[in-house]
Target: carbonyl reductase (NADPH)
Amino acid sequence: MSNVPVAVVTGANKGIGFAVVRALCKQFPGDVYLTARDPGRGQEAVAKLQGEGLRALFHQLDIDDLQSIRVLRDFLKETYGGLNVLVNNAGIAFKVHDTAPFAVQAEVTLKTNFFGTRNVCTELLPLVKPYGKVVNVSSMVSSSALGSCSQELQQKFRSDTITEDELVELMTKFVEDTKRSVHEKEGWPNTAYGVSKIGVTVLSRIQARMLNEKRKGDHILLNACCPGWVRTDMAGPKAPKSPDEGAETPVYLALLPSDADGPHGQFVSNKTVRTW
Ligand code: NAP
Model:
């Protein structure tokens, strides 16, 4: 088994995830795994970095597929005995003008952004080694969507005692409410992406709390972040930040020094902790 530190980035064949891998290849003292759901696109991305003189390794990972997540988990366990850095970057967003019914958009978006990210965390967090770092890429949209929720929902999502099961129940309820066209009456905002990212931010707060309760001595730091508005296939060409600039905050959180005791359980943008 290798003692080399290992970092894993999800959804890294393009966009912000790819830029995070590029930065980690330059700064992380260990093996960096570029993961992608499609091996062809993933290997192509690895080759592109190789062309820049950077060495990333590839492993397949489709966060919608529990089997795929477990294959990666077993590989990391057997090869490295765990992992040191996990960047949950993979995500999707429907385009504004997409004509798919809102209920379909809600189900598909939540499936990847919330439930997929949660499944990766469920399988990989137990493997994170002491002094490890976990970064969940959320969005400022999670904050704005939170502000558009009913007071009752806002209180639940800001709660310091909400459990993961309760969060899963709420995210499931959102999808069900959209199917019955009652989501607005039930206090939800009209954005599936926004709700999915509320889920990612709140999940991060819960997971950080669980680490405090169960693994305090391990000094693992886990945060949610917003990369900013970044020129990628998701956000389009008008966004002000380049992918490398978008990678700055996630990489800062992934490389916090081992003597740092924070940020932890925070929502961070532009390397600054934001009020949730
Ligand atoms: P992007 O260019 O569309 O890249 C998204 C990446 O996620 C792609 O590599 C995609 O793979 C991958 N992905 C999607 N579903 C996946 C799955 N089921 N399993 C594994 N990988 C999957 O988007 P981006 O702008 O770089 O976004 C990266 C993250 O930043 C997302 O979480 C996004 O919500 C967040 N974010 C972006 C912005 C922005 O302005 N761009 C702002 C705030 C937050 P394929 O190529 O196979 O589709």
Notes: The mean pLDDT is 98. The first strand starts at residue 6 and ends at 9. The chain has one domain: 6-96+110-140+196-271. The radius of gyration is 18 Å.
